[in-house]
Amino acid sequence: MRILIVDDHPVYRDGLAAVIAQAFAGAQVDQAADAASAFETLAHRSDFDLVLLDLAMPGLDGRAALPWLRRRHPALPVVVISASDDTGVAAECIACGASGFIPKSARRDTIVAALRAVIDGGAVLAPAAHRALAPPGLTQREAEVLRHLGAGESNKAIARGLGISEATVRVHLGAVYRELGVASRTQALLEARRRGLLAG
Which pLDDT does position 162 carry in this prediction? Predict the structure, then answer.
């Protein structure tokens, strides 16, 4: 397993790298002090399993870097790490394609559990953000699938964007349909918008 930490604070980078090394046997951790260095590293290596991206950095910050990463490396999970635990910030990051959002204030065991969940194909948010982003009755992943559906994406595009299989997308869509009481994509979009779960 190979992880790239992108953060302009060397002490935090080193601390996070130490946590990862202790929690994940054999993990290789690369570090980048800014987004430009991260882009260069990713351009030369294609074997990363996860990127941990600081939101606030000099120059090109995490908000600007995240969409670029999603376009260039759609299957590579990106977890945002931030000094903020604001649910609005978390929502913005998830909407831009982040697989997770972890406040820097999170405890070591919380960080490790979150990283394990993302590496296993899940998504993670700070607890408050999770409550704000996952509509009642839907899991976080189902809510993510619904948001991609609202953007007009095909099952293939949703799978690529979330780093999961098309079969898994169909399973999540089935759960969304059951929760909304509908039987098709069009009905799901109409009902989700009626309930205020999607804009438009």
Answer: 84
Q: What is the dihedral of CA 99, 103, 109, 113, to 10 degrees?
A: -10
Looking at the fold, whether 109 and 25 belong to one and the same domain comes out as yes
pLDDT of residue 135: 60
Give the per-residue pLDDT at 194. 82
- How far is residue 165's CA from residue 171's CA, in Å, rounded to a whole number? 10
3-state SS assignment for residue 32:
strand
Burial group, residue 23, by CB count within 10 angstroms (0-12, 13-18, 19+): middle
100-103/2-6 β-pairing: unpaired
Amino acid in the structure at residue 46: S
Question: What is the DSSP code (8-state) at residue 149?
Answer: H
**Is there a contact between 99 and 78 (Cβ–Cβ < 8 Å)?**
yes
Collapsed DSSP state (helix, strand, coil) of residue 182: coil
The encoded tokens of residue 34 equal 């800014």
Question: Both 40 and 105 in a single domain?
Answer: yes
Contact 54, 35 (CB under 8 A): no
Amino acid at 136: P
Residue 200 lies in a domain: no
If you count them, how many residues does the chain have? Answer: 200
